[in-house]
Write a structure and sequence with these properties.
By secondary structure, the protein is of the alpha/beta class. The chain is about 40% helix and about 15% strand. The protein folds into 2 domains: about 140 residues, Quinolinate phosphoribosyl transferase, N-terminal domain (Aldehyde Oxidoreductase, domain 3, Alpha-Beta Complex), CATH 3.90.1170.20; about 150 residues, TIM Barrel (Alpha-Beta Barrel). It has 12 helices and 12 strands. A 6-stranded parallel β-sheet has the order 6-11-10-9-8-7. Strands 3-5-1-12 form a 4-stranded antiparallel β-sheet, covered by helices on one side. Strands 2-4 form a two-stranded antiparallel sheet. The longest helix is centred in the middle third of the chain and has 32 residues. The protein is elongated and about 75 Å long. The model has no long low-confidence stretch (mean pLDDT about 95).
């Protein structure tokens, strides 16, 4: 199938026309490809609404012109979202695009590394370029930030967790990028795990009443309870709490919390933690460190597309 050269209606093909290998790869990575297709379709339509065209490419590039180019890393880090970028190119150009030498998501790279090669109609490559880069650069930024935390925690028992502090509509992709960087996903939404935060405790009359209310209403559902101090920790442990979040505690208090818990519950440290404190917190003996900054304020990774010169 050959899409129109102006790409006036995007995507130019249906999801059922995308190479099955790419669909299988994204599915096996834990992504809902139909949801992802809708997401990237909306992103493409931001650039070219129905009935309009890529004016610059249409005016400067012959309709029959073909080109090739490379996606290159311009800094060191961990790449993610290259499969998503490939999906963007297929959405714009169908089977007229070739994706060549794409490295696997989760691969460490350095400045100058080529992470993917593309070839196809020149207009289509430039129409798809920014959307493909937006996805891959952001997700590589998440993966790179996560990998930095993973490196800081190396040799300790602690693992880095993400949070629900994600960009609206981007949660599945951002959590995928966290996995690419070596991190661990916390709950995806409000239904798959109950989490007693300070406001829930206030509304329920305390952390233990809140815990008991959840167990009564949703038997068997995993529950995590946030505690503000060691007295609340002791109360939750006495109620057989299995997962406890230590919120904004000092290093000394976290160390004492680990001693008091003595393996009876999983402990997670949270609350404005920064990379320069990562190892200090991990050495208290906590099991997890949750970091909202992995997703809510990450710096995009510097990727670029350069067309080959004839």
């Amino acid at each position: 199938m050959t899409p129109t050269q102006t790409y006036a209606t995007l995507p130019a093909i249906g999801l059922d026309e995308v190479p099955s290998g790419l669909v299988s790869e994204l599915t096996e990575a834990g992504l809902d490809v139909e949801s992802l297709w809708r997401h990237l379709s909306l992103a493409l339509l931001e650039d070219i609404p129905p009935g309009q065209t890529d004016t610059t490419s249409t005016a400067t590039i012959a309709a029959e012109a073909r080109a090739s180019g490379v996606f290159g890393a311009r800094e060191s880090g961990v790449v993610a979202g290259l499969g998503v970028a490939a999906l963007v190119f297929h959405a714009v150009m169908g089977d007229t695009v070739e994706i060549i030498d794409r490295v696997a998501d989760g691969t460490p790279v350095v400045a100058g590394d080529v992470v993917m090669r593309v070839a196809g109609p020149a207009r289509g490559l430039l129409t798809a370029e920014r959307t493909a880069l937006n996805f891959a650069s952001h997700l590589s930024g998440v993966a790179t930030a996560t990998a930095q935390w993973v490196a800081a925690l190396e040799g300790t028992r602690a693992r880095v967790l993400d949070t629900r502090k994600t960009l609206p509509g981007w949660r599945a992709l951002q959590k995928y990028a966290v996995r690419c960087g070596g991190g661990v996903n916390h709950r995806f939404g409000l239904a798959d795990m109950a989490m007693v935060k300070d406001n829930h405790a206030v509304a329920a009359g305390g952390v233990v009443p809140a815990l008991e209310a959840i167990r009564s209403t949703f038997p068997g559902l995993p529950v995590e309870v946030e505690v503000q101090n060691l007295d609340e920790l002791r109360a939750v442990l006495a109620a057989d709490g299995e997962r406890i979040l230590l919120d904004n505690m000092s290093t000394d208090d976290m160390t004492e919390a680990v001693r008091i818990t003595d393996g009876r519950a999983v402990l997670e440290a949270s609350g404005g933690l920064t990379l320069d404190r990562a190892r200090e917190v991990a050495l208290t003996g906590v099991d997890f460190i949750s970091v909202g900054a992995l997703t809510h304020s990450v710096t995009v990774f510097d990727l670029g597309l350069d067309l080959d010169e004839d």
